Amino acid sequence: MKPFLLVMSLLGVSLFAQAPAPPPTTDATNAALKLFRAKLPGGLYEVAVHAIIAVTSHEYVVDGIARVTEVNVDTNGSLLVRFYYLEPQLPNSPLGLGTATIEKAQELFKEAADKTGQDVWKKVVKNYPATTHARTVEYRVQKREDLDKIFQAAEESFRLQKSKSVTIGE
Fold first, then answer.
1. Domain segments of the chain: what residues?
2. Of 3, 35, 39, 87, which residue is the least packed, with the fewest Cβ within 10 Å?
3. CB neighbour burial string for 9-26, b if at least 16 within 10 angstroms, e if fewer
């Protein structure tokens, strides 16, 4: 009985080993992974659509001087991505200065920062270790409309479970 089982086992292994490999699939929808992709001047973010568990947008004020509008794409992985738009928080002037005056002062501040190479209004700025978070990727956009495009693309990709791509800054 043992020789019979041994012969059958060897025959089965040899038949299995000689079976031709299945042909590669040519159907792109079955072969391609569905991705949400955001290409920005600061880099490229890609995530599998099936891994997205939430897409959020919210606003907050930092230290009374900047308003941040932030879009987060939460996944079942350990990497968190934040896209945000930063604008100066226009204070209520105790001196009775008008909004136009405050906006002009902010504009001059940005121009001066550009000339000195201090582009804090254009890039993600972190103060180590207070604002450095492990496993967090952050992208800063220059226009609120760009942030809205990212949110709409991510939300649609998540809701409809389909690939979606957005390019900012080209």
1. 27-167
2. 3
3. eeeeeeeeeeeeeeeeee
